[in-house]
Amino acid sequence: KSSNLKGYAPICLGLEDFYTRRLYLRIQDCFGRPIASAPDAWFDVVERYSNDSNKTLHRTTKTSKCLNLGSYNYLGFAAADEYCTPRVIESLKKYSASTCSVRVDGGNTKLHVELEELVARFVGKPAAILFGMGYVTNSAIIPALVGKGGLIISDSLNHNSIVNGARGSGATVRVFQHNNPAHLEEVLREQIAGGQPRTHRPWKKIIVIVEGIYSMEGELCKLPEVIAVCKKYKAYTYLDEAHSIGAVGKTGRGVCELLGVDPADVDIMMGTFTKSFGSCGGYIAASKEIIDHLKHICPAHIYATSMSPPAVQQVISAIKVILGEDGSNRGAKKLAQIRENSNFFRSELQKMGFEVLGDNDSPVMPIMLYNPAKIPAFSRECLRQHVAVVPVGFPATPLLLGRIRICISASHSREDLIKGLEVISNVGDLVGIKYLPVEQEET
Ligand code: PMP
């Protein structure tokens, strides 16, 4: 009933699905519009400004410029860059935007081979394989690794691409409580021994799938503990580093580097190029045997057009900057900056009493709102005050665990961050957030 939420008061309807006869909940505003299509709350059509590190979104339909606190542009590479951009333009002239061929026909350029070698070296595995899309990397690779007779044990909050890959694999899928290695062990014990002492492993193969940084939680994976459990039960580990590769670790090598894990202890490393590297596509890095196997049997490698060459060149250049192989120390500076920015923003939000999920060093910061009706209201009010945040609700999260999500970039200045904090604080009051008690600092 709050006037701040005018037009967003939620109405929950129990509806019956015509085909499955299952009941489901639909949440809509008082005009009968699903909350997900609440006007003004989502970014709609945007224009970007490459020359300001893509920190500004221009909402073309509303003609308003917004500070972008919603992109995965962790290192600021999704923008014109003095090292990357000229090389990307050259590759576009040389190779064009598409190979119009699959890798095994005419789609295998020198750039693709170079990036596979570079990714393998960067993440510390013997070999790597590229895919045109991060989503497809999970959804097509998981079925190529495990099938009927196999067992997948998946974190309960894994990304939809993993969920779909697991479902499509034909393997048995079990879920363990989010980021809870003790529960993972319980599930494994139950599945291996069936609760009874058994002398043989009933599964052809067991794969445990986790994420480096959970995209809706901002939390770091308890990777050392997960690996210890996997080793004990002889399960393979599959790590999705979409949000952690390039974004965390002293030299940008992701959660393994940050948490002191030897990459040799992770069997399959997956990552995307759509975040820290400012490009598109995905990779799997693993042993030579696994990569060879994937090259021979994975339909998304054999039947899909290879990654766009300029996109490949962008990743090659970005990794070279991160590694300092461009002859500058810009990469090291970006990594130090994203860490400083993330930790500053998180601690300021906490001081204001917001319930912020996630761990230090993580650039992903969800602020809990709970009430589904407050998600579009919060986002809309932020947009009105020229700050873009990402509204996240059902089905990406459970129904009553709605939130807005902030992604911090190395390219945000202290001024940008302070502006973002001021707006979020105003909007928190306006929308009516339940703040947490904040400990007073001793003077
Ligand atoms: N894995 C995770 C954990 C993700 O968050 C995402 C998308 N944000 C993907 C995979 C899919 O990656 P892409 O957007 O590059 O297709």
From TrEMBL:
One of its GO terms (cellular component) is serine palmitoyltransferase complex. It is found in: Endoplasmic reticulum membrane. Its cofactor is pyridoxal 5'-phosphate. It catalyses: L-serine + hexadecanoyl-CoA + H(+) = 3-oxosphinganine + CO2 + CoA. Its EC number is 2.3.1.50. GO terms for biological process: ceramide biosynthetic process; sphingosine biosynthetic process. It holds the Pfam family Aminotran_1_2. One of its GO terms (molecular function) is pyridoxal phosphate binding. SUPFAM superfamilies: PLP-dependent transferases (SSF53383). Pathway: Sphingolipid metabolism; Lipid metabolism; sphingolipid metabolism. It is a single-pass membrane protein. Residues 65-424 form the Aminotransferase class I/classII large domain. Its main location: endoplasmic reticulum. It is an enzyme of class 2 (transferase). Keywords: Endoplasmic reticulum, Lipid metabolism, Membrane, Pyridoxal phosphate, Sphingolipid metabolism, Transferase, Transmembrane, Transmembrane helix. It comes from the Eukaryota. InterPro entries: Aminotrans_II_pyridoxalP_BS, Aminotransferase_I/II_large, AON_synthase_class-II, PyrdxlP-dep_Trfase, PyrdxlP-dep_Trfase_major, PyrdxlP-dep_Trfase_small. PROSITE patterns: AA_TRANSFER_CLASS_2. Belongs to the class-II pyridoxal-phosphate-dependent aminotransferase family. This is serine C-palmitoyltransferase.
